[in-house]
Backbone:
């Protein structure tokens, strides 16, 4: 009896350990195994198919690497450009080793003689900017120019014709922000600016890239006024830019046209595009601007959090509360252990203030008084 019991326990425990460790190993293998030999601080995570995420260069950089070359979603910090380029080249070389090139035709060249000739790495063809912040567009210029140096083989040489470099795609608002030099800022250099913009709801690459369609989707007035979601339709991966983060409350840049309602709409849009693989797990994968790779359940929890806090602040704004009163009421309190911050680039107070301002808080005392009377 007792032996039977312990046998059952042992079998059950073994099954549990095997199942959970296999699952963890699979997750780690798939998501956390860095490609060996990368520049310090940078980490490539394989996502699915040709899609990888490069972390550690500012914002997450989603990269499609394959036979057509390289397409990047965002370029990272300017100071990390060289390292990002080196990391991409290294990953390309590793992938090339995996797929042995077919020998040349015997009538034109000797297969034997050419067997050890390495083909040049394919260039960076496209950089898609999700928005204008420097941790997303900082290395645009360097990486765009590298698009020509890859094929030209002269890394140090000047590129006489910049049109040979990578195309930079973004929403029109990104170009306007980069060229306007508003508030005394210097306009971005010409080679850092988008070469192709769109002003409609969505834009598609005109042809498959690395075996799949790539779609750009504009989300108005969300993190900024020029946000783009990038949807890799074959791999079913969405690069969300800073509309979605797993590490902080959403950054709502009200000075650049962002709003908390736009962020909620953007998260809902991601969820409308996403399909879970089993129950709420897996399926469409979402790359946040900062933080870890997610599935639609992660985005849904985050969307719920932002929606709940938005509703609380909206109610306080409707009551005519001042910003100080709203902060004192702590509308984020139950989420602060997970997303809150009192220091760093995006504090809880900044988030509450951005939510308050974008929901019309603090505007004109008279309408508030009339609202109060009507209740
Ligand atoms: Zn940003």
Residues:
């Amino acid at each position: 009896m007792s032996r039977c019991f312990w046998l059952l326990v042992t079998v059950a425990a073994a099954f549990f350990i095997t199942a959970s460790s296999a699952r963890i190993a699979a997750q780690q293998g798939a998501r956390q195994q860095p490609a060996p030999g990368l520049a310090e601080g940078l980490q490539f995570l394989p996502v699915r198919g040709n899609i990888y995420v490069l972390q550690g260069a500012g914002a997450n950089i989603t990269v499609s690497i394959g036979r057509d070359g390289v397409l990047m979603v965002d370029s990272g910090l300017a100071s990390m450009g060289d390292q990002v380029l080196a990391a991409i080249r290294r990953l390309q070389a590793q992938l090339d080793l995996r797929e042995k090139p077919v020998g040349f035709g015997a009538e034109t060249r000797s297969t034997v003689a050419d067997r050890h000739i390495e083909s040049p790495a394919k260039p960076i063809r496209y950089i898609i900017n999700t928005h204008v912040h420097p941790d997303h567009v900082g290395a645009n210029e360097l990486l765009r120019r590298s698009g020509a140096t890859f094929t030209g083989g002269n890394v140090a040489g000047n590129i006489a014709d910049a049109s040979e470099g990578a195309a930079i795609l973004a929403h029109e608002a990104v170009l306007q922000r980069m060229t306007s030099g508003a508030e005394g800022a210097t306009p971005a250099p010409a080679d850092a600016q988008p070469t192709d913009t769109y002003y409609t709801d969505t834009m598609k690459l005109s042809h498959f890239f690395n075996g799949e369609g790539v779609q750009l989707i504009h989300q108005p007035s969300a993190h900024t006024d020029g946000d783009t979601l990038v949807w890799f339709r074959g791999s079913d991966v969405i690069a969300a830019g800073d509309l979605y983060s797993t590490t902080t409350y959403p950054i709502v840049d009200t000075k650049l046209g962002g709003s908390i309602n736009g962020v909620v709409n953007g998260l809902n849009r991601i969820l409308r595009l996403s399909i879970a693989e089993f129950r709420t797990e897996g399926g469409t994968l979402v790359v946040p601007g900062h933080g870890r790779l997610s599935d639609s359940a992660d985005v849904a929890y985050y969307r719920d959090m932002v929606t709940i806090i938005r509703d609380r602040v909206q109610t306080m704004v409707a009551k005519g509360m001042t910003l100080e009163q709203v902060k004192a009421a702590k509308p984020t309190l139950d989420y602060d252990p997970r997303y809150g911050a009192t220091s760093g680039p995006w504090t809880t107070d900044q988030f509450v203030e951005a939510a308050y301002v974008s929901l019309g808080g603090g505007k004109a005392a008279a309408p508030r008084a009339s609202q109060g009377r009507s209740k």
About this structure: Confidence is low (pLDDT under 50) at residues 1-37, 149-162, 365-375. The radius of gyration is 24 Å. The longest strand covers residues 43-48.
